[in-house]
Design goal:
- The structure is a single chain.
- Helices cover about 20% and strands about 20% of the residues.
- The chain is of the alpha/beta class.
- The chain has one domain: Alpha-Beta Horseshoe (Leucine-rich repeat, LRR (right-handed beta-alpha superhelix)).
- It has a 7-stranded mixed beta sheet with strand order 1-2-3-5-7-9-10, with no helix packed on it. It has a 3-stranded parallel beta sheet with strand order 4-6-8, with no helix packed on it.
- The chain is globular and about 75 Å long.
- Bound molecules: 2-acetamido-2-deoxy-beta-D-glucopyranose (6 copies).
- One 2-acetamido-2-deoxy-beta-D-glucopyranose (NAG) binds next to strand 6.
- InterPro entries: Leu-rich_rpt (IPR001611), LRR_dom_sf (IPR032675), LRR_Rcpt-Like_S/T_Kinase (IPR051824).
- Pfam families: LRR_1.
- Its main location: membrane.
- One of its GO terms (cellular component) is membrane.
Length: about 200
């Protein structure tokens, strides 16, 4: 009998410990002040793999504006830009990744479908790399305002679903290997003022 009670006690204690762990995990849904949520850090890891970017240092907070995430200007490399910005003005100082600028870095992967896992991203600038493939349908559901993928090795038709990113203000696709015509669906981009550096006349 005593043994049975002991087992019950042990089980109760285990359940209690498990519950405490779960409760802490639940409060962990909100990131610490100054940090992005864990999901966004994992998204950055996925994006790095897709782009084949190897020098993001995940032992440092991507939102700390340190030189690990925001490389200062190099006069000998005027085009090079290696920047991740966050907005940390959310509830309780929580951060969200808003800008990824990776210009002139010789990245040889593909455009990252995982971009869609950064719901607060507004600016993606991958100008002048060696990225191949095309723009993924996943991007259609982003809220991007600035999209620059010019100067890469993208190919195939210019996707119609780019017309779904109605938040776009600026889009640069030039100097790639896209073929075919500019799809009529891009006419849905009513906020767009600048396509590949050409001003769009709005009526
Ligand atoms: C990343 O940061 C850690 C801690 O500052 C440092 O020890 C490490 O060398 C860095 N890694 C790279 C690849 O820069
Ligand atoms: C990093 O810079 C951004 C804007 O430039 C700012 O909103 C944010 O608070 C800064 N983060 C830290 C940790 O200083
Ligand atoms: C990189 O681009 C961002 C956004 O346009 C800009 O704020 C920053 O000054 C640039 N950094 C360098 C090193 O040119
Ligand atoms: C783009 O929007 C249209 C119309 O709302 C929808 O039918 C289509 O599935 C969307 N495309 C993508 C790739 O999300
Ligand atoms: C575009 O290029 C692909 C091969 O990359 C080819 O199959 C397709 O027919 C081309 N389309 C046009 C409109 O030229
Ligand atoms: C459009 O883009 C070009 C090249 O990036 C730039 O020089 C010009 O100022 C932009 N115009 C507007 C209205 O943003």
């Amino acid at each position: 009998m005593a043994l049975v009670l002991d087992i019950e006690k042990i089980i109760l204690t285990l359940v209690l410990i498990w519950c405490i762990l779960i409760c802490f995990e639940a409060t962990g849904i909100h990131a610490q002040p100054g940090y992005p949520p864990k999901e966004e850090i994992n998204a950055l890891r996925d994006i790095a793999k897709e782009l084949r970017k190897t020098d993001w240092n995940f032992t440092h907070n991507p939102c700390d504006n340190s030189t690990y995430w925001v490389t200062p200007k190099r006069s000998e490399m005027p085009l090079y830009n290696n920047t991740v910005y966050c907005n940390c003005n959310y509830n309780g100082g929580e951060c969200h990744v808003t800008d990824i600028i990776l210009k002139g870095q010789d990245l040889a992967g593909v455009l990252p479908p995982s971009l869609v896992k950064l719901p607060y991203l507004r600016n993606i600038d991958l100008f002048r790399n060696y990225l191949s493939g095309t723009i993924h349908p996943e991007w259609a559901s982003t809220k991007l305002e600035y999209l620059s993928v010019g100067g890469n090795r993208l190919s195939g038709p210019i996707p119609k679903y780019l017309g779904n990113i109605t938040t776009l203000i600026y889009m640069s696709l030039e100097s790639n290997m896209f073929n075919g015509t500019v799809p009529a669906e891009l006419g849905k981009l009513f906020n767009l003022v600048n396509l590949s550096g050409f001003l769009i006349f709005k009526f």
